[in-house]
Amino acid sequence: MSSRLLIFLLLLLSFPAIGYSSKGQLRILITGDTKGILASEYASRNQGWLYLADALSPEPGEVPTLRLDAGDLLGGSDFSHFLTHEHSPPRFPQLEILNALQWDTVVLGNADLALGAEKLKVAQKIANFPMLAGNVVSIRGTWPKFPSFEIIEKGGFSIGVFGLTTPAAPMWHEKLANDLAFLDILESAEEITQILREKQQVDLIIALLHSGSNKKFGDQENLYADLPNANAAGWVADHVTGVDLVVSGHAHQTFPRRPTTHLNRYRTPLVAPGAFGNGWIEVHWSLELRQKRWHITQSHYQYVEAPQEIAEDWLSWLPWQKQADQFMTTELPIRWLKEPSKTAWSNCTNELIKVALPEPRRALLPSWQYEPLLFPNTGELLKRSHLHRWWPYRNRLQLASLYGPQLDMLIDQQKWSLIGNRLLKPTKQDVWMLNYHLQGNEGVFRALIDQDQLGQYDSISWPERLFQFLRTARTLPAECNFLKIIP
Ligand SMILES: [Zn+2]
């Protein structure tokens, strides 16, 4: 084939919907819940943006392609914690990588919102693309504005992408509920779809949701916290008419697992791109214009695993990950002598909490999970990463001033223990709790505790508080006989 003919054919493929053509092609690349990981050191596999980047890069003459991310891109991992809490201003190399990939748009997830208004303003300045969150409303006007939708022109199509995030976000993260209101996903989706179809007259509509698709998942959390449904992507796919594709993040699901030409689990095709940068979802559509409307005539949906190697062009980003890994693997002068029994573990951690707490040395916390998989090897030193894994969500402690009956109710829930000095007075008592629990998770009723019973926050995250304590501890509680301070 002559090269001129080849170029002509390539051009024909790239601009199929321009001019008088009544047929077109669209490719959609979808990532989600990567937690900003570039190339995880701890993972036993190839995961992170550096592994994905080459495959997601724009190529000259590519089929018209949309690049979308389903959220939890800026926060939610050791790596992002390091970049956003140990750097001021916070750093977002993942956004610079997405800029280089000419990314189209992302929806903000709960772990992104948890960074707070100031850090998100920095992120917004770096990103060359909009960060959507159409159902998040700033109550006091102190938060940046996040658009509901973005209209993207690709290959002659006008594509409306709208972004909504899980309304249960305040459950995982401190203070969000003070500043933000979360609107119901289903209602917001119906409203925005109507605007996109009737006012904006787009050709195609994609719902980019940081919200799981399992209809049962999250039921209980919502009940306790009195928040709208957390995982509503399946509802949108079944009940909102006029949407062409639903993308579901947050629940770390992967749909479809095998390549398929039809997705029929819901009324509208629903895809979910997995998590941690292990791979991405690829959608291919062939479209035909009939009676002034584009119809999808052929479709292909596929999950693609991250390549085995980082392509050379992207290796220059690796030092970011190395720095973060170095920080998270900082060793404590404490040796792990042997794996403790379950009882020994819970006795030790309860005593440790007590001595590491800021005043008052009293807390209402569930015990650390007994998770041998997350334990160091015999003889190994404890690392910062161990503490961060033992206490997920990196919550800070907050004082709660509780009445006697409230305390009784909370302590009654079996796995909870009141740690620290005994409560003698029957009146109000100040105890530290983790925001995660205060906001309604693991069976603690948010409604039970009134806003004005909440006191000060600890200045640093709880795992970090523990790390700082252990770094300089001269003695450890006798119960922790499987740990030894090395002089
Ligand atoms: Zn999430």
What's the architecture of the largest domain in CATH terms? 4-Layer Sandwich
Alpha carbon gyration radius:
25 Å
Strand content: 25-35%
Please list the strands of the largest sheet in the order they lie side by side. 4-3-2-1-13-14
Structural class: alpha/beta
**Distance linking N and C termini:** 75 Å
Low-confidence stretches: 15-19
What would CATH call the homologous superfamily of the largest domain? Metallo-dependent phosphatases
**Count of domains:** 2
Please report the number of helical segments: 17
Tell how many strands the DSSP assignment holds.
22
Describe it.
Helices cover 29% and strands 26% of the residues. By secondary structure, it is an alpha/beta fold. The chain has 2 domains: 306 residues, Metallo-dependent phosphatases (Purple Acid Phosphatase, chain A, domain 2); 155 residues, 5'-Nucleotidase, C-terminal domain (5'-nucleotidase,  domain 2, Alpha-Beta Complex). It has a 6-stranded mixed beta sheet with strand order 4-3-2-1-13-14, with no helix packed on it. A 6-stranded mixed beta sheet has the order 6-7-9-10-12-11, covered by helices on one side. A 3-stranded antiparallel beta sheet has the order 17-15-22. About 1% of the residues have low confidence. The site of zinc ion (ZN) has 6 residues, from α5.
